[in-house]
Amino acid sequence: MIHPIPDETSVQALTRIGALAEHDIHPANVSQGALWLAKWTDPGLNLAPYHRHLNALVDETRAYIADDRDDQKLVLDAARQILARRYGYCGWSDPGEQDSCANVAHTIDNRRGNSTTLAILYAHVLSALGCAVDYLDFAPRLLIGVNSPTGRAVLDPYDGGRLLNARALRRLLKDHHGEQGELIPGQLHALAPRHVWLRLHHDTKVHHLRHAAPEAAIHAIEGALLLAPDTPRLWRELGLLHARLEHIVEASQALERYLQLPGGDVHRYTASQMLQQLRRRLNLGER
User: How far apart are CA 8 and CA 66, in angstroms?
Assistant: First the structure.
């Protein structure tokens, strides 16, 4: 069950969740973080109905399987029956909508989402029922892996929780990349839970930039940084957007933080050059 802390602000909640060590981030934390990101975007959003809905999804799926929780096939079928059939969760049919629905609250409202928001819902339910769940970073879209002693089942939340065998995975890959797409060993690797939030952030940022809203994109990055404060890429993105808007102080601070973080990123040299230029402008009194 999700039990939010009363009167907690978005900043407090995102900071608290973001402070979790990677191995302590469970699917329930991922769904909570995603909901707080939605509230970060829309401060007036009341999260209580969404928490109740997530709890109802778990309760109804649990009721569907009754005492057969050890039957993985039945558990997976129950998740599909409740999420896809009873509530109608599925992916947007229009590819152009993908980056505009990276908001788990909107997904719950519309029963439509992108592969990331839908994977968050499926992982939340399956994990609450005792399944060992992975987020699988597959090129076309995010999938869910459910691990058991007998192997791993792969679900496609975007397609109604459909189970995918090797042939279906290969077809999905070819549909996305063309006939040259080919399934290779290791292609279905598990995505760290924190990176699920980063996928949400990326889609949200792209949506704002496509609609010429750089200030909204900056706000999205700032929310993502509360969940992933040591992610160099986010600091670089923040610095570049602030520089684009002539926010010289903020751009300098973000790029300084980017360069302080470890990593052999190919953008470090150009970021360093940009930072020097920004500092010269500050010294000349340009604000």
Answer: 35
CB atoms within 10 A of CB 139: 12
Report the half-sphere exposure of 201 (CA within 13 A, side-chain side): 26
Helices 214-227 & 27-41, crossing angle to 10 degrees? 150
- For residue 59, count CB atoms less than 10 angstroms from its CB and return exposed for 0-12, middle for 13-18, buried for 19 or more: middle
* Alpha carbon distance 243, 218 (integer Å): 11
Statement: residue 191 has pLDDT above 60: yes
One-letter amino acid for residue 100 of the chain: S
Q: Tokens 């089942």 sit at which residue?
A: 153
DSSP state of 85: I
Q: Hey, how many other C-beta atoms are within 10 angstroms of the C-beta on 282?
A: 14
Q: Which residue has the higher pLDDT, 234 or 1?
A: 234
Q: Which domains does the chain show, CATH number per domain? A: 10-191 (3.10.620), 194-283 (1.25.40.10)
169 band by pLDDT with thresholds 50, 70 and 90: confident
Is pLDDT of 16 > 70? Answer: yes
Q: Judge contact between 76 and 84, C-beta under 8 A.
A: no
148 by DSSP, 3-state: which? strand
Task: Kindly give the residue spans of alpha helices, DSSP state H, lying in the chain.
Answer: 10-18, 27-41, 48-65, 72-79, 104-110, 115-128, 166-177, 193-210, 214-227, 232-244, 248-260, 268-283
* Mean pLDDT calculated for residue range 91-98: 65
Count, residues in the chain: 287
Q: State residue 100's pLDDT score.
A: 53
Q: Name which residue leads in pLDDT, 68 or 202.
A: 202
- Kindly state the percentage of the chain with pLDDT values over 90: 72
